[in-house]
Amino acid sequence: MSTITAETLEPGVNYFCIYEAEIDPNSMPLLSQSDEAIPKALITGKGQILQRDKEKKLVEVIDLETHQRHIVGWDKISDIVVAD
Hints:
Order of helices and strands: EHEEEE
Distance between the termini: 16 Å
Structural class: mainly beta
Helix content: under 10%
Number of strands: 5
Shape: elongated
Radius of gyration: 15 Å
Largest sheet: 5 strands, antiparallel
């Protein structure tokens, strides 16, 4: 079986992946009100790929646990599998 990559995703097929996203605390209402400087955080999760932008080499994923959406680079997704 060949490895699935962002380049080889087929339209109309659902895929799951492991993704890595950078979270800006200013995008979170409770954290953005803080007087202290809060650094960006790097999170890793399991998600479903919703869209792919071939030109910018980005994908939109939705986290399977939190249902938050993230835009990440092709180099930030791995272990891509077809969703059954």
